[in-house]
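batch job 7 of whatever, protein = Phospholipid-transporting ATPase
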Amino acid sequence: PLFCFQVLGKEERRVRANDREYNEKFQYASNCIMTSKYNIITFLPVNLFEQFQEVANTYFLFLLILQLIPQISSLSWFTTIVPLALVLSITAVKDATDDYFRHKSDNQVNNRQSQVLIRGSLQNEKWMNVRVGDIIKLENNQFVAADLLLLSSTEPHGLCYIETAELDGETNMKVRQSVSVTSELGDPNNLASFDGEVVCEPPNNKLDRFSGTLYWREKKYSLTNQNMLLRGCVLRNTEACYGLVIFAGPDTKLMQNSGRTKFKRTSIDRLMNTLVLWIFGFLVCMGMILAVGNAGWEKEVGSLFQSYLAWDTPVNNFLFSAFLSFWSYVIILNTVVPISLYVSVEVIRLGHSYFINWDQQMFCSQCNTAAEARTTTLNEELGQVEYIFSDKTGTLTQNIMTFNKCSINGQSYGDLTDPLETQPKVLDFSLFNPLADPDFCFYDDKLLESVKVGDSCTHEFFRLLSLCHTVMSEEKSEGELVYKAQSPDEGALVTAARNFGFVFRSRTPGTITTTEMGRTVTYSLLAILDFNNIRKRMSVIVRNPEGRIRLYCKGADTVLLERLHPCNQEVMSITSDHLNEYAADGLRTLALAYRDLSEDEWEAWSESHRFADKATDCREDRLAAAYEEVEQNMMLLGATAIEDKLQEGVPETIAVLSLANIKIWVLTGDKQETAVNIGYSCKMLTDDMTEVFIISGHTVQSVRQELRSVWLCAHCTRLYTVGSRINAKLQMTGGDTAGEFALVINGHSLAHALEADMEAEFVSTACACKAVICCRVTPLQKAQVVELIKKRKKAVTLAIGDGANDISMIKSAHIGVGISGQEGIQAVLASDYSFSQFRFLQRLLLVHGRWSYLRMCRFLCYFFYKNFAFTMVHFWFGFFCGFSAQTVYDQYFITLFNIVYTSLPVLAMGIFDQDVPDHRSLEYPKLYEPGQLNLLFNKREFFICIAQGIYTSVVLFFVPYAVLSNATQSNGVPLADYQTFAVTTATALVIVVSVQIVLDTGFWTVFNHVFVWGSLGSYFIIMFALHSQTLFRIFPNQFHFVGSAQSTLLQPVVWLTIALATAICIVPVLAFRFLKLDLKPQLSDTVRKHTKTQRKPPGRNTGSGRLGARGGSRRSGYAFAHQEGFGELITSGKNMRLSSLALASFASRHSSSWIDTLRRKKHTHTPPSTSGESTYRLMT
């Protein structure tokens, strides 16, 4: 039997109440959670093991081991172990700190107290000691300790209320209900004798699904998610409840959803990894060249004086000497890739992240939310974004719904009586209805008069809105109602009914109580026909106090109008026209209908519904069929129109990002018409566009035909206009005729377009358009679109959204941005960056992103330059020292060069540098384009940097060598000694790289000055200290350069040599930069020059952009936002002005032709096969 249970346990879970011995057979996880990675014993070995997974750390460990071999080491071991230990220590401290806080959090959670029913009495137990099968008592405002099956509650009918903010970010209350058979077990004595057994699904991460069966007293009862209280929830407005532990600890759905986010790397990271491999190959080549030189030298020259200078003991021939020499030079030349590079990169990224967090211009005072960089690894990628994928509701819009207009029995309400009136008068509902919401705004008094005079259709309209919903009501005091709605749409509609005299007051599993025109009415709630994404509607069946049974239904007009009685044709035609008008205004629409049921019809349908509800197989399909049966032959009441206003600054932001050549795609679950109208409102779609194409085919062939027709039309138009003078001028200024088109594609068409054999055509067609809107898409399709662009265009993508349905898209994109809005914080938790307003995106990309990319590129260019200049001197010296692996510099200089003498200035440049101020970055979005084209750091720029570094090393070696070889001191003593040469070369190197970073720094702060001049000063201070008599006396075997610095730097010829070397290194760089600035300036150079000539405070010229009048096709914008399941639970008892940006004309005149040439090469479209004949188009 035990073996049988263990086999079953893999596919299902068996839990018996109050029987720990039985449940322990299955070895279920305890309720102790552990998110920490280390303990005191395992920290050091595990952390070091993890750090040496990094190739760079392993490489430097390998070098350290080589340095411990005396025969091949020309450097002391501390030249490598000091920087390596520093890096490992810093990382270890960071990891230990992070893990300490994880331990602290784990202990806080595990030591929470819970009341557990043990041997018939309630005892306080720590959460970590709770086991599967235990019965727990929860009290109001307590966190749920584990995933529980709700057994009973102090509320009637076994109801309890929970808040799931920690699970899904939603702060509205949700209701759960116990199985009816256990709802009366409210007493601990009764619960102690409860021995029911639950057979259910194994642990999983699906928050909205649970399937199981309760076996008790030889009967079985089906269990759903509505019977479950999940760990992380908080009990609200319920005195107490009892629950049976089904999943504990790591098996709970909260912990199952806490998987690690996919690690993202930037394109610069990937390029750096490639370059490091190339550098390592270059290092090996240099080592081999010098090893061959050593072999030749030892054979031809070294062998001649073996009698008085024999080889060391293990060396017995020139080949073995060459072998050892190779490894010696690998050690000496390893600084071409110093370990400090990786540390510096992380410090710079951390600084950039703090700048984002501290940016007051990205702080929303309204919701007291600051921008947050939730990762430190992607900052420079923000400066390279080419495609933005955005959700609509809550991201572009506010997701705050207001009841705007309605149509009742063919009469439209909500239009302003005087459209020219600047401040229309808001209706005062307080005198008419003391229960009205004072914040509700409506302007058409004709609707209020219709209610007052008792129009039956109007009353029935608002009666439907007050009854057909799943809103929960909380009455804090007499008449002070607070509605808890699953979606803002629901709340707006119920609030509208409330203000017009039909007030929803309260509900029980079987009743709904309202106040209708001042009279309290209680309806029997017979059934709720719940909403889902397939039905796109919901209904309730109620019995009024007079005994009449009526079905009320609200839903998308596309599904509801086809279920009306034939006698509704006239009113349906008028209402459809109203729906089109509302959708054309960008409003979210909804149709309302009702049907009267006789007692016999209700009884017959109720039986079929009961049968479908209790079915163990295909339950959802059977319920859908039952719902379909009764939702027929309905009478149309009218339609509602809800406004979801655009967020502040959305049109301006999209306009600026478009000028930066960033393509914006909107991926939304809303209807096509609503999405299109929002597209016009936010300036994605404009009246200046040649055409807006609609792809709405239902078959693979029709979608392919439409895509090909769109591609043909767009490219034929482009070819036609190329010859025109206007287009010629556009070509000269970088214009792109592809920007004249937009593409709108529906979800069912997108499913076909994403198939493998059609995705290339879809991408080439979509990318030929300036704007793309995908409607009625699923969360999975959002992610698929992002992945497709990543794969086909090799472009940096950014996804932005605010809801749980955007998480897959956010995780799929190179960069994920979460909006902390009305749909909770799940999107924020899954994101890389977060803020509260879409308009902050332009500052994130055009300021912080562009600066981060610029700074990182300048840092890397300088870093590789200075290290090649530093290291390659050893290579040239090898040809003059018999290839003996002798170093040029003092070993302490080698150790300190990258971690003291040159580290801070380049860090300051990498953190603080900027080419133009932030307001200029926003005024001139074309400045963003070099990042998209990866112009500032690529393989070409890398080779230029190392070429400059090698040139500098040649000058730094051969100029002092040539001068000092024949130079003498003032007393006639020759200067041609090793120590004088080493001090001269090292000093010249530090001065040259310091002058170079002065030239490279575009923006000076106090930190830059302190770090540059301080580092230069520290070099001389440390050098004089290391060459002092004091240290020589204490450590005579370690400090061999005693007095060298003082004697060398007192010679005028040495300073003349240093000045000559510096001039030869720097003058060509200055000459090249002056010529480039004069002959081929970059856009940033032009902007700086333009800024200096203006000498005016920053500002923008304002202009106006008009919204084109659009009409015609059906544009219903209904979108139901709440989730499936509430209905079953309850019934079981269960015109914006667009700023004219300063760059609009300026950038087109000054944008560099070489950027445009590169862009045209990069975005050459590959035409799909062209056999299309027609397309569905929406003419603008």
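notes: The two ends are 73 Å apart (CA to CA).
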